[in-house]
Amino acid sequence: MDDLSNKSETDSENSLTIFEVRSSDEESTLANNRFTKANEYHAVPPPITGNPLTLRADISFAGLDEYAFRNKIIESKTTETNKTVGTTNEATIVKPKSVNETVVSKSKINRDEVIIEDWTSDDEDDVENGFRRGTIDKTLFIKKNKSDIMLVQVYVDDIIFGSTKKSMCTEFEEVMHKRFQMSSMGELTFFLGLQVKQQPDGIFISQDKYVADILKKFDFCSIKTATTPIESNKPLVKDEDGVEVDVHEYRSMIGSLMYLTASRPDIMFAVCACARFQVTPKASHLHAVKRIFRYLKHQPKLGLWYPRDSPFELEAFSDSDYAGASLDRKSTTGGCQFLGRRLISWQCKKQTIVANSTTEAEYVAAAHCCGQVLWIQNQMMDYGFNFMNTKIYIDNESTICVVKNPVYHSRTKHIEIRHHFIRDCYEKRLIDVLKIHTDSNVADLLTKGFDVTRFNFLVVSIGMLNL
């Protein structure tokens, strides 16, 4: 009891000293010597201008400076990788061999970690066996040998690789088998739900097996077919008085269709339009979703064709549907990017602003397309291609004038500043904007619904066919 009372008195004295009034000179001395170091760190009372500190027991760091856990931030040109030296599954502390060494817990090692840690050297840019890590995509590895190139893409526990020279692929297979006991599964035919057909004149990518699976899942194998995924003259509305439907089934259908848009830009707009009503779907919305499935029943094997003999030039198409959203009268942005005649990227998105004119809607869409082009330009630099002055085709003459002519600035002050970076890109000659006729603008497919004639023309023009 005496010890407890003494401890209580001591704590009381310590708490009182926190609020003790000191002279300005004494207060300055304490501020400059808040912590004193011998073999231990000691907490001392703060000045009266600060918040009271809670007094804690002294913690000794004697003898642990050399072996202490440390969090080393290793900076590369474009990324920062956090590497913690030490183990978390044991109570011991590990002394690193070098500051760049990484000690990984065996229980957490997977195949990707082994590959990355074993290939990457101290500076994280030079990789063994002549490979170089991608600047934009850190799971991409590139190896160049004179005019030949080899690409290795790692995704979770799967690896895709290809080369312009067969011997480089054979050598890579031997290295992976010897070092990681991994075996090759042969020529790429199926990956992440995508079916890949490699032919002498090109590559065909489709998801017809997935289409068959979702048709069977939702019991649409015997339904009537439709020639287009959405009706052209009947926009979807909120329909507050409509009959409610099962929200879980509706969302499941939308989720299945969203995954399918990875290879089916022909249903992109229809799926995005139906996805806006997932909160309280009605019978009319479910009918629109079923129409997409009816169209898939009509065209189950449609896919993207990448011809071998095609110009290797990056170009893009931009378009918008002014006030096309029936709920809030916002416009819809559509854009697609090509390498020659090969479609490599496409977008369909409702704009975040209410455009005051078709020019503003087209300008916002062009800025969005420009951002995608800049990303592709940076990505292609990893492959050794430097695309400058990329052509963006727009079917609105006023939008082109706004991009090219700074005099129009006074007329575009109401447009958000973040969309004006396209002017800077044009002045730096990263992009060029050109006029195209509306009938030839393939991005139109991603902005609205069409009749069967116009729809089929755009589907073929964007690079889709049946094989």
Automatic annotation (TrEMBL):
Coiled coil: none annotated. InterPro entries: DNA/RNA_pol_sf, RVT_2. Pfam families: RVT_2. Residues 128-231 form the Reverse transcriptase Ty1/copia-type domain. This is Ribonuclease H-like domain-containing protein.
